[in-house]
């Protein structure tokens, strides 16, 4: 519980920056397309502070700091009502813009999150350096899966099941999420490629919340020769920042795919309480770690918002794609039903991840003890 309290301020800082950039993407592209933005809000509910700029946009800081929104003139207006607009209102309305313009405005939010991630990763690579841990077997633990599978010290792992391995983190992620699953390792040994089939050992590991879960372990140890830290120039840092952002997208897809196929527990999904807990841990490690966490979380927000779920940006993009393909928007009744389904899905997901957070943090046990 103390970790959550300690994590509130880091969490609020991280989520505010990420949400601000997300909404700034919507705002910037909307203004470039001549749409009037009525409200730019960080948070929901009652306004705490705000001001109105020359363009008539009300910039707000609201009471509940878990998200934000941009309200554009004409957004959500039925097509029949748009005929009642004056010439001046028609020119600045979101609803009267072409389907391509509306698509771009909505897409800009998630893209802004990816851009933020690239910038944050690039900044770390420039100022702190890119910590590249080579996927090399420094030492082999006796009796481990690596030893049983024929791996020897000095082997450089280049691919697993056809997936290219460039850093030790890539190796660690695949191994940890495939406990007991036979994997084909391509290793470079004395200039030659050797193929090994190894099933990572199944071990129980603390998930950071005091609970045990199954994870895969190969049984190799790092040495100083594995770690290379190099500061990059601005251009190379941006390129590596883009690659790191893409790499995290693939990891998220892989994680979600494993949940759907049943090889990864849905209990590993975290909600606001869980993120606050993790924020506290990163904040304790220093500013560099907190910025790294912000970059990773920004990738998550951008990617999740692209999912074709009504209520999210991806749901709106789905509607605009339908309108582009068929030359007319989806019927109002159908959109309303889709929105209700979207609200149900998002609400159910929020309740589920919050339940996960409470379970992992042991709050149910605490309540049970207090009641007994």
Question: What do these coordinates show?
Answer:
The chain has helices spanning 2-32, 87-92, 99-127, 145-148, 168-176, 234-261, 272-284, 287-304, 313-326, 332-360, 363-371, and strands at residues 37-52, 58-72, 130-133, 139-140, 156-160, 163-164, 183-189, 192-198, 201-206, 212-217, 220-221, 227-230. With 372 residues, the chain is an alpha+beta fold. The protein has 2 domains: 97-129 and 232-372, no CATH class; 130-230, Pdz3 Domain, CATH 2.30.42.10. The chain has a 4-stranded antiparallel β-sheet with strand order 6-5-7-8. A two-stranded antiparallel ribbon has the order 1-2. β7 (183-189) and β8 form a beta hairpin. The radius of gyration is 24 Å and the shape is elongated. It starts with a helix and ends with a helix.
Blueprint (SSEs and pairs):
Elements: H1 2-32, E1 37-52, E2 58-72, H2 87-92, H3 99-127, E3 130-133, E4 139-140, H4 145-148, E5 156-160, E6 163-164, H5 168-176, E7 183-189, E8 192-198, E9 201-206, E10 212-217, E11 220-221, E12 227-230, H6 234-261, H7 272-284, H8 287-304, H9 313-326, H10 332-360, H11 363-371
Helix pairs in contact: 1-3, 1-7, 1-8, 3-6, 3-8, 3-9, 6-8, 7-8
């Amino acid at each position: 519980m103390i970790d959550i309290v300690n994590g509130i301020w880091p969490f609020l800082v991280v989520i505010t920056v990420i949400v601000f950039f997300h909404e700034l993407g919507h705002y910037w592209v909307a203004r470039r397309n001549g749409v009037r933005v009525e409200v730019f809000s960080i948070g929901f509910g009652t306004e705490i502070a705000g001001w109105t700029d020359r363009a008539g946009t009300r910039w707000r800081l609201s009471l509940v700091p878990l998200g934000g929104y941009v309200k554009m003139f004409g957004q959500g207006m039925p097509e029949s009502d748009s005929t009642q607009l004056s010439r001046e209102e028609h020119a600045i309305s979101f609803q009267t813009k072409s389907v391509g313009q509306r698509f771009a405005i909505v897409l800009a939010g998630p893209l802004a999150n990816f851009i933020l991630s690239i910038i944050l990763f690039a900044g770390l690579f420039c100022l702190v350096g890119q910590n590249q841990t080579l996927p090399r077997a420094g030492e082999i633990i006796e009796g481990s899966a690596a030893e049983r599978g024929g791996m020897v010290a000095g082997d450089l792992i280049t691919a697993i099941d056809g997936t290219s391995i460039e850093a030790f983190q890539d190796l660690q992620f695949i191994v940890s999420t495939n406990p007991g699953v036979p994997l084909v390792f391509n290793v470079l040994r004395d200039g030659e490629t050797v193929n090994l089939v190894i099933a990572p050992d199944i071990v129980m590991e603390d998930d950071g919340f005091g609970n045990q879960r199954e994870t895969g372990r190969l049984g190799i140890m790092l040495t100083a020769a594995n770690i290379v830290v190099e500061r990059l120039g601005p251009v190379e840092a941006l390129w590596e920042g883009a690659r790191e952002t893409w790499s995290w997208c693939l990891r998220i897809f892989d994680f979600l795919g494993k949940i759907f196929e049943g090889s990864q527990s849905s209990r590993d999904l975290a909600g606001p309480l869980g993120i606050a807990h993790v924020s506290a841990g990163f904040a304790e490690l220093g500013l560099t770690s907190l910025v790294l966490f912000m970059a990773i979380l920004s990738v998550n927000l951008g990617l999740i918002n692209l999912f074709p779920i009504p209520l999210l940006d991806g749901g709106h993009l789905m509607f605009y794609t339908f309108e582009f393909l068929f030359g007319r928007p989806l019927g109002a009744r159908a959109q309303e039903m889709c929105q209700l389904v979207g609200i149900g899905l998002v609400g159910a997901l929020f309740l589920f991840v919050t339940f996960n957070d409470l379970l992992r943090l042991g709050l149910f046990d605490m309540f049970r003890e207090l009641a007994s």
